[in-house]
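Marked as duplicate of an earlier ticket. Keeping the data here for the record.
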Amino acid sequence: MKARYLVTTADERTWPEDSKTPVLFLGEWCRLYSRRAVWEKLDSAVVPYHWDDREKLHRDYKALQSLYEEVLQELGGKLNEIHNVDYSVRYWRIFLGPWLGYFMQMLFDRWAMVERTLDQYEVVGVRILNTPPEALIPNDMVHFNGLYVEDLWNEGVYGQLLKQWTHVPVEEVEIQNSETCFRAEEIVLERRRRFKRKLFNAYCLLSGILAKDNEVFLKSEYLTLWDGFLLQLRLGQIPKRWDSPSTLKAQVEWSQRQWQLVDGRKNRFADILRASLPLHIPTLYLEGYQDLQNQLEDLPWPKRPRLIFTSNSYNSDDIFKAWAAKKVEAGAPLIIGQHGGHYGVGLWSFSEEHETKISDRYLSWGWEEDIQPKVKAVGQLKARHPLGVHHAQQPDALLVTAVVPRYSYWMYSIMVASQWLGYLKDQFRFVENLPQAIRDALVVRLYPKDYGWDQIARWQDRFPNIRLDAGEEDLDHLIRLCRLYISTYNASTFLESFTMNVPTVIFWNPNHWELRNSAVSYFEDLKRVGIFHENPESAARHVTAIWNDVDAWWLRGDVQAVREHFCRRYSYLPNDLVRRVEKALREMIQERSEKEGQALVAKKV
């Protein structure tokens, strides 16, 4: 086997200066489509991706979940010690669980690829950037979400692993401090959006004035504005909307990071993880923790909420998480609502496990399972209704596509990292198998974030005349014009089109979108009536067959019966959604009252 120089990312500053040097790319994420004129000339090979073995991916997920529980307890104990507090594991799970789960899953992937490479190839060296270690440390979860998709952060992590945990000869590349600044997306608000934002902020201030200390707290609950207001009225309180202030910025203090979690057992990755945590934990959770607590004291939110309900703030909103964790510690029930697809359907999902573990009750869009006693079906919180158009008379076919970061992120049963290239080939195969008339009617809806995949260029190079929407057009506008809605991934897209009764065709590679056993029969029913397909050719044939008379297929009795049966399970749209949510919240409040009463009686005894 030829000896090669390792390249870990697409950052060409770390590539060999001599273009004749044999190169080993750690993964497809190194080879940007826009830079193919450069890397195509190299004598190169690409390391096969370890999670192309999907059974290994599932095994690794289960093993990482077990390790996560161990490390969460250890890290929570260490932070209790550092911050002189005494919070439970649940407190730390709510507050920093998303970051810990994400980080350890990403770190495992990066290490597994390094380990696989060194086992299977002769590596003669690697160049790494001398990025200051503090440049890899996020301030908070929002910051972290922006870092882990970037080449610079991933190059830094690979550099740490190679330098500290392998014997590969390392050459450090000098860079300027200004080059360690990570790119941040510039947010430009148009005048109308700025005006709406001002109104929202004003209403949040008014909410603080009107709030009572013991009322139900709802934030980002995913209900429509009207349903959210109606729910609060039914709960006997003035409708309010809440926003979280930005977290304060905290500087890295290395004197506060001179600790390490230690475990007596010999496990290579577990050792790496424990050693890496002080090098990566967000400053908000360590150096900025006391300032964060001071921020919480100044919030106008209820001091003693009867209940907390959110569908979207549990992950990246550190202000909410810190506040909610503290209130839950004091006895407030936490209700989490389902905020999209894949839940109850996919074979594994860190997010689903996390949400059900931190919550006292989990409100699903329709599914319930015996092994998940916390899950209560209320219906699709977004309440997506038909748009009032006759779709069979519309001109377009709408192909809705997905993208994932080039580097793996949190784990659930979807395509991972470079597997997106196979997904894109499936989209191309679908289009190639359409007759020209339908191809001319096709609109391809791209995911608005590109992650360096160059989606537009790839599509235009393959189909120069294709109609692309770069995720900028209002989706409802595109749906109003579509005769057929074509969904290509397991998320909320087809759940919403089902409840809107838009003629829908679904296709995806089942090897990259594994289903849990309880969902298989539902997808078999969809397959039987032509809605679901496991390869692009089958989907294209079906679209071609029904295109000229979509109603003859979509309004057929068996097709509608299967759609309705599926919706009742995974995207139920009841006429009394608000009442059902209210009932679930009141039941939780009643349970809390009963527990408090029992505790009071026990205390008197």
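See parent ticket for discussion. The first helix runs from residue 36 to 39.
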